[in-house]
Amino acid sequence: MLTRPNAPKIMRKEIKVTQRITLSENDGNIEKDSKGSLPEIRNSPSSYNENSDSKSHYSEADDLEIGLCTSTCEPKGMINESNDCFFIACLQFLLCIPEFVDYLKSWKPDNRESPILESLIKISNEIDNKADESPVDISHCRKLFNDEFEEGYQHCANQLILALFDKIQFSCNNVTKVFQCYEEKDSDKVWEQYLSDRGSIVDKLFVGMYKRSFKCKECLIEQIHYDEFKSIPLPCTKESGKSMPGVISNIGEEVEESTFLCKKKCKGERDCTITATIIHYPEYLILPFQRQDCFTQEKIEEKMYFNQEFTEAHHKIEYTLQSFIFHMGSLDSGHYFSLCKVGESWYKCNDERVTKVDPENLEGYKDNAYILIYKKKAN
Ligand SMILES: [Zn+2]
User: Fold this and answer.
1) What is the dihedral of CA 167, 171, 174, 175, to 10 degrees?
2) How far is residue 181's CA from residue 261's CA, in Å, rounded to a whole number?
3) 28 CA from centroid of ligand 1 (Å)
4) For FRET with 191, which of 105, 134, 184, 330 sits at 20 to 30 Å CA-CA?
5) What residue ranges define each of the domains in the chain, with the CATH number in brackets?
6) Which residue numbers delimit the USP domain (predicted)?
7) What is the pTM of this model?
8) pLDDT tens digits for range 44-97
9) Distance 265 CA to ligand 1 centre (A)
């Protein structure tokens, strides 16, 4: 565990995943954060070039059918060169996901270059090489993120996951614009449209979609907006800690009061009721705890409870725990590692060391859980 007295905050500002959305398509009207006071949204793929042409990045690997995977993904240690535990914890959970590793194995460069995929493939091949037990060099992958995540410092694992996903999407998808869809009533069509435009492995495995209905309190007219998400932050308070299974199972629907720009009739800012419903549940659902107090900026050390399994209350979608990322220490310094399930075995992936963990002993690690990753059960 490396710490630096003057290291930047590892979790920085906790990010809300709901996208900053514009209720008007392009008429320069006010932008309204659908969550009212919540900060800027990390989920927006800021690195995307909206003007990029839609030359095809398509390859056979993109046809990969989810659910028919062959990779076993037993983890291997990774070399922590300089405060890279946040980076390693994310790679470990990602490379324990069989569908993702299958994708890497079937990926061929064709006519495109993808430094991120090439780097992940190299790491994945080294993990597979059972003849060599030494920890894997990940520095070539770490370097790809030096601009956003300064070398030598620890950063927020949740932000890294989103940046990693952005990079993969950017190198695989034909369309790189933020998805915008208004007023379509058929939710299935919206998701189909999204996937036909994109369909990278990240979209197939980790992206979900919200439908938000904004109902004006004055004219009672509704405006609908769809937006994708890659994670759903969970509150981290004493109360939610005691009833965390309940909090998790209620992610599928939320109602809140806010204000919005009523375009259809009132033509101005009005109070509204927002109903957010998940219309597509990702195969792998990423749930980070909001462990930074937005007022004091201190880390919230509350013990959080969560179950191995949960059923989403509104749509009865069942999820089972796939892995979780653990963080101990303060916001200024600390250490990350991940616990990953492969088959029926659990592994503790702690930098260079990977050890099997008795599932009975998982409870002890839950206190400091920071990011939960659940896998959707086949129905
Ligand atoms: Zn109105």
Assistant:
1) 20
2) 17
3) 18
4) 105
5) 20-45+66-376 (3.90.70.10)
6) 76-377
7) 0.80
8) 333 333 333 333 344 445 554 544 556 677 899 999 998 999 999 999 999 999
9) 5
